[in-house]
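Data card: per-record layout.
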Amino acid sequence: MKKILFFLLAITIVSCKNSEKKADETTTPEVKIYQLVGGSILVKKLEVFSQDTTYTGQSKQFTDAYYVISHPKGNLMWDAGLPEQLVMPEPYDEPSGVYRIQRPDSLVNQLKSIGFKVDDFQYFAMSHSHFDHTGHANYMKNATWIVQENEYNSVLGDSLAQKDASVASLTKVKKINGDYDVFGDGTVIIKYTPGHTVGHQALYVEVSGLEKPVLLTGDLYHFEENRTNKGVPSFNYDVKQTLESMVKFEAFAKEKNAEVIIQHSPKDFEKLEKLLKK
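The structure for this 278-residue chain is written out next.
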């Protein structure tokens, strides 16, 4: 009788452990997103954000957001704002006459405000390698840089005579080709959206506590009219690719019922802030 009871007890314990294991495996991970300001950009000649004369004589204020994504398997930083040399009392008018730019504070200080340090990041990714997204990239040298292979080759490829100094110290590199599930559970996905640059990408995040997932545009769109009218900046790498990426992006956003956040839009910056405070 004792042997039978022991046997039944052993089966019960094993069953409970298996049930607990399955519950753990199916539990949705807690994913958080923090939005930080990597700069202020006044576009003095908005016409550069069109293929024609649509915005001639107009100007527009952009923000330059970057993001911290916290996941049980690690932390990801998305984009890197403007260079820290632009943390200055007065904004800087760059030589082309298109932009007036300024960064409010250093990466270290901004991370401290949300309880993070530079060394807390296992992963780093950027939507693309333009100067307003690579500003503090070199601080991420201990993280694994997740980058489209063609984008990597465009800035640090072996055949380049001059390589991009803003990402030169990033030696831990994960080169990808297409979409990439960062943590392997579908909660944080890099979406390949080429056209603005050769390896441009957007970011999908299922944020715990929000009704909708968040879909960060990178520079697929720069402001609301860009998205409505499918406007393509004059300096994009490939117009056709950009338009194709817009179609795929919108289909994915609809499929996931995602909250689209245009990263350079002050309106969308405020929208996400309000969502995160609910």
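Known properties of this structure: The chain is about 25% helix and 25% strand. The domain at 26-277 is CATH 3.60.15.10 (Metallo-beta-lactamase; Chain A).

See the next section for split statistics.
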